[in-house]
Amino acid sequence: MNRGTWLLGRLAQIVPSFLFIGVAVFVLARLLPGDPVSAMLGDHATDATLARLTAQLGLDRSIPVQLMQFLGGVLRGELGDSIAYRIPVARLIAERLPATVLLTLLSVAIALALAVPLAFVAALNANRWPDLLIRFVFQIGLSTPIFYVGLLLLTVLAAWAHLFPVGGYGDGWRAHLWHLFLPALTLALSFAAVLMRSLRGAVLDVINAEFVDFARSKGLRARVLLGRHVLRSAMIATVTLVGLHVGSLLGGAVITESVFAVPGVGRLMVESIFARDYPVIQALTLVLAVFVSLALLATDIVQMWLDPRVGR
Amino acid sequence: MSNGLVLTRRAGLALAAGFAAVPVLTLPGVAQAAPVRGGKMVYGRYADSLFLDPVLNDANVDIWVMNNLYDTLLTPMQDGLGVAPGLATKWSMSADGKSLALTLREGVKFANGTQMTAEDVKWSLDRARNPKNGAWVDLVASITDVVIDGPLAVTVKLKHPDLSILAALATFNTAIMPKALFEATQGATDAEKAKAFAEKPIGTGPFMLVEWQRGVIMKLVRNPYYWKMAPDGKPLPYLDALDFQIIPDDSTRLLKLKAGELHGTEFVPYSRVKEIQADANLRMELWPSTKVTYLTMNVRPKLGDGSVNPLSDVKVRQALNYAVNKDAVIAITTQGLGTPMTSFMSKSTPMQHAQTLYKADVAKAKALLAETPFKAGFEVTCMMVAGNVDSTNNLTTIQQMWAPLGVKLKIEQLDNPTLTKRYRAGDFSMRTASWTDDIADPNQITSYFAYFPNIGSLHSGWDNKKVNALFETSQEEVDPAKRKAQYREIQEVYTEEAPILFLYESPYPVAFRKNAMGFVQIPLGNNLFEGAYLAA
Amino acid sequence: MSLVVRDLRVVFNTRSGPVWAVDGVDLEVAPGSVLGLVGESGSGKSVTLRAIARLLHGHAKVSGAVSWQGEDVLAMPPDRLRRLRGAEIGIVFQEPMAALNPVLSIGQQIDESLVAHTVLDTKSRRARALELLDLVGISAGATRLGQYPHEFSGGMRQRAMIAIALASAPKLLLADEPTTALDVTIQDQILRLLLRLKDELGMALVLVTHDLGVVAQTCERVSVMYAGRVCETGKVSEVFAHPRHAYTQALLRAMPGEQIGAKLVPIPGQAPRLDAPSPGCAFQPRCTAREPICATQRPSFTELATRRFACHAGARL
Amino acid sequence: MRAWLPLGTGLLILTAFLVMAVIPESIAPYDPLGFDFAALLAEPSAEHIFGTDQFGRDILSRTIAASRIDLQIALFAMLGPLLIGSVIGLLVGWFGGWADALFGRLADIVVTFPFLVLVIAIVAVLGPGLINMYIAVSCVGWVVYARLMRGEVRIQAQADYVAAARVLGYSTARILLRHVLPNAVRPVLVYAVTDMALAILTGSSLGYLGLGAQPPTAEWGVLIADGRNFFTTAPWISLAPGVAIVLAGLGFSLTGDGLQALLDVKR
Question: Chain centroid to CA B399: how far?
Fold first, then answer.
């Protein structure tokens, strides 16, 4: 089978899932106890006020009607207005999505930058002190709650040493990257630990593989040997892991964005759940599903590039 | 409606209460040099505003900053107990108490440079009292008409005498908006126009909004046409620009303040107050508030599941109140910054009647409980908004204090909408809550806490005929002294009946860099930046 | 002699203690000659081969001497070792599917050898790669260069691996059971190919195999290994005609020969354990010609003009 | 050697926590729920080795008492997904066909949801508390186990002994339970052990949002979350539970490593 066709097939498998996700999240959102109007008006509003706003927002219509309206809107590319902020959901998400995407990508980059070299050092020194030390440190990274790591990094590196800004997002690309470094690092630590574990194991497997011995017998430089033969093969399994973890990175972004005051969609999602802001919850779930699917597709492509056997 | 709302819009926010009425803030150290003009102040807020329309908004996050964009005819005094001139310079009530004549200030311009007229005033008040508009119409329900008497004169006609009308005209929902500009805004209905207008609101306030990224930042610049003059005779505000940065995490906001990335921030956790007071670069400000923190009890005879409700017995409620050592709660939750409640209203509420409420007495509590069918103790569940640190502290402490009575307190953390739903449906035993007034008058808090026909006395089901009647009378009372006596009686009955568990009042904890001066927060919560400046 | 191995020993430290995989091996390979290294599985042939090219991993302890054109291989610094591998000594592994990197094209795998050992530019390297494929009998080289190992058949893979090993024209090719994984007709092709290349390129060849037939067909000299030691070395014709070690004799008897109807005699017993060496001859428990001394004293080498063997019974076989 | 050192160390750590979980009263110096108004936020000292919290409760005692709840979280938050996922993986891996295709789609969908967000939403529906947290984690976490199990089953299904069992005419149930499952379950079990460390972290994240263990129950994540308000003034509050979480994580991961080597599971 042609590899392009194979990729298209992967895409085709994903697309119908979106319809399912759309319906599922619509139902799930309505299963949440409470409603957006009383959440917004608080404890003291009178029933009349409540009823008036509910009607104004169209939330008094039957659930099937609302579902049809939602799905129809999605097909027309209209996502409706946020109940809490009273501005179009599309605008809200457009304002917030870049920060989260950047944060996620940056944290994947940092996680790889940390995990790949250290996994090599650990694997090449398997069960000796550099290995044990690296594994212990990463274990701490893996076991420390994300909000605590964030607070620690903020306090020490930002507020005390003034090496980084204390949260926020800044203006312009360079400022964005600068502001997002610490949150990305926070998010990357636990992910790097997972990657490191997997990669260390893969390197240990690969390094004893016959083809590496054969490559050595060709008199290749250590750099070529490790980079081309060992790393590339070891990365194949790890790349899959990256794809599968994008979803949980986004989940972790919920807390990271809150601690670092990053204006991302993770925070928006949780705020919207807590506010029962249905249009935002629904649209955001779809947008995140698209994002994660694109990430999975990207890892498929990388994997295809790494491993010629995939997709043929 | 009123307001309230304090109770919480979000999990995680520490809203507790109680405050120290007396210790008003001190601004030590810095000599009061002449304010400096210019510069940009950056202020950290815990949550963003939602909808900057004076009439159609719903939440404190809007109310507390809107006065920087809009003005009202009168303004609340800084102690919260009276009103001062605003867009109106003079006012007089007719002898029958049903007609209030106001003289408008001369030369007031909106931030776009157009003149404010009597027409704008009439239109704004008519919009505020339109029953179809929003949650706050009750505050101005007594108005029957607004009459234009001349370019600078309007008369507000009342259905019946209403001593709270002056306070109402100093409340956010009666802010004056530019009629022509509003009506020229895109949209078919008032609601649609309001949505578009609130994107870039224009009022007569000291600042105007130039950029707003929801949940991230709100950028204000000074209104060059602002009418109010500083003591030096030049116009306010001092600042050229004011940024509101949204930083939900308490610790992060404080770190940003310490790093000098913010000039000031609101809602400092009580656990951090001492630390800030000890920091030479910072200044802790504790503003007297109308904030009270308490537990609401469901006093209906049966609970939602049909079981007998011990809290329907007044002696049980009294016993629970006596068993709680408020000072210990205050020490743990507010780090000693709160003060015990002395009425269901805060000390900053006009006509508050201070009493000694249920001073901790375990023996008395046991004795009271012994007189009830529940002398063997019982289990009771209290709902709270998940993640709220102050609520957790309060309930954990109370849990400990009720244990000697055999009362087992179960804590149930819920997310806000779930809690609100169960609360409104009366499907609860107890819940944590706090309240701040929106109006400098006791009628709002009383209508919510004690007057059953409004919202069933905080949805507690407590229905006291005498209090209901007293409240109705007081609403039309023309004699301030008599009105005060009526409120005194209401408060005494309320204390005796104890439909809530009284806890504490607490101040608004705000922190600034040493050079950021002149901010004021009034007991109603409004953030005043017109006099704020950055010292050299 | 281009390659001389003296008293080569390899000890593996394993979880359950040391294993003496190679225990004092001597070998010589003259330029342009073919040496066969035979023995049962586990006799230490492959380990010897890898020890010569220093391909064994950290847990293996190697001692003795390996001299390549007078240079001590075991003491070579990394840079020199890298030039030795590939440029002077090429290696062909047993299982091409495992030895070829599955994620790199054959072209890339040839090319990286050329990059490491030649100064050719991209274009010349490609020309050389095509030449190599042609040399090992792979047609349509231009297409084949871009293909991956899994797109090759077994025989083609082995040819490709030989092409890779020959990329920098080594003077010695170490072939570790290069035909074991292949079916018989392909085996024959590959052996012919190796012999042809040896002649065309003038290199020496060490052929590790457990197949005496292969040795008879291709080699000039043979070393027979048992339990990590060489038990007999000599010209193939002489050794096969008159084995002077009981093990060689047993091996030959166990091999189906040309004489139809000759009786096959399997070797009784099992291969010895290498983790607990006995004081005597390692083959003695299985030996039909054993004498009492075999169990107590390790036989020393008897050196003849073209033969070396270590067997107490050598004289009477 | 390669298996026993990590396995032994890991099991030693876990045993220590298990002992704390079973008999906290005998080990903890104070009542974990007991207030001490004389020692609010006391610094670490001889009396309170890890200090006290804002209620004057002894941090060490609370950390020890929390072992029970945290080991329970680790166990149950792993067990639910493990059982559900393994059964599904076993069945779809063996039978394939439309069920397998459906599983593929469903798994795709579940991984496109941000894990924590989904758990938050489910907990919001069901209400906070540990039981609901287990349910939420099971709803999301089963996919990984099912994928692992499915992959192993498909490999085992090709194995000679399975073919032999079929030839002998054994029932499908017998082949699955007696032959395929025991062989396929090893990598799943190894993953499960390391997953337990992650379960504790999920618990702490929910604790941060107030959706995990309810007060006054001591739970490491909640203890650490409580400490964040005193991060600068009383940093010791988070120390002991932090050390406990790291040690427990280390224990689980070492045990997992050891098991992996012992059972010779390919990564």
Answer: 28
Q: What residue type is assigned to position D168 of the chain?
A: L
Read off the pLDDT of residues C226-251 as tens digits, 9 standing for 90 and up.
Answer: 888 888 999 988 888 888 888 888 88
C179 plus C257 within the same structural domain: yes
Q: Is B394 on the interface with D (CB under 8 A)?
A: no
pLDDT at C207 over 50: yes
Q: Determine the distance from the C-alpha atom of residue B522 to the mean position of all C-alpha atoms in its chain, rounded to a whole number.
A: 9
pLDDT recorded at residue A2: 67
- For residue A289, which amino acid is it? A
Smallest Cβ distance to D55: which of B11, B387, B397? B397
Closest approach of chain A CAs to the CA of D38, in angstroms? 28
Task: Report CA D211 to chain centroid distance, whole Å.
Answer: 17
For D267, name the nearest residue in chain A, comparing CA atoms only: A201
Higher pLDDT, A10 or B161: B161
Quickly list H helices, chain D.
4-22, 24-27, 59-95, 97-112, 115-126, 130-157, 160-167, 172-174, 181-208, 220-227, 239-262
Q: Which amino acid is present at B239?
A: L
Average pLDDT score, chain A = 84
Higher local confidence (pLDDT), A52 or C203 = C203
Decide if D44 is inside a domain: no
Structural domain including C226 reads 3-88+170-278
Phi-psi region of A302 (alpha: psi -120 to 50; beta: other; left: phi over 0): alpha
Local structure of C72: helix, strand or coil: strand
Cα gap B336→B313, rounded to integer Å: 32
Q: Are residues C40 and C162 in the same domain?
A: no
CB A211 within 8 A of CB C94: no
Cα A179 → chain centroid: 18
Sheet with B378-385, edge to edge strand ranges? B339-340, B500-505, B292-297, B430-435, B378-385, B407-414
What burial class does residue B481 get, using C-beta atoms within 10 Å of its C-beta: 0-12 exposed, 13-18 middle, 19+ buried?
exposed
Q: How many domains does chain D have?
A: 1
The answer on pLDDT for B8 being more than 70 is: no
d(CA A256, CA A250): 10
The model's confidence at residue A252, banded by pLDDT at 50, 70 and 90, is: confident
What is the C-alpha separation between C46 and C52, in angstroms, rounded? 10
CA C35 to chain centre: 8
Per-residue pLDDT for C262 more than 80? no
- Is residue D41 domain-resident? no
User: CB contacts < 8 Å between B and D, how many?
Assistant: 69
Q: Which two tokens stand for residue D172?
A: 């499908």
A 10 A CB-CB count for C46 gives 20
Chains touching chain A, criterion 3+ CB pairs below 8 Å: B, C, D
Nearest Cα to Cα of residue B67 among B226, B214, B195: B226
CATH number for position D155: 1.10.3720.10
Segment A74-93 mean pLDDT: 87
Q: CA B133, B136, B138, B144: dihedral to nearest 10 degrees?
A: -50
Q: What does the pLDDT look like over B226-244, one tens digit per residue?
A: 999 888 888 989 999 999 9
CB A217 to CB C86 under 8 A?
A: yes
Give domain status of residue D230, yes or no.
yes
Assess if residue D241 is contained within a domain. Answer: yes
The model's confidence at residue D174, banded by pLDDT at 50, 70 and 90, is confident
* Touch B-C: 3+ C-beta pairs under 8 A: no
Interhelix angle A173-207/A232-259, nearest 10 degrees: 140
Chains contacting B with at least 3 CB pairs below 8 Å?
Answer: A, D
Instruction: Give the helix ranges, DSSP H, for A260-311.
Output: 265-275, 278-306
- Domain with D237 in it: 4-18+56-262
Note whether residue C97 is domain-resident. no
Structural domain contains residue C267: yes
> What is the count of structural domains for chain C?
2
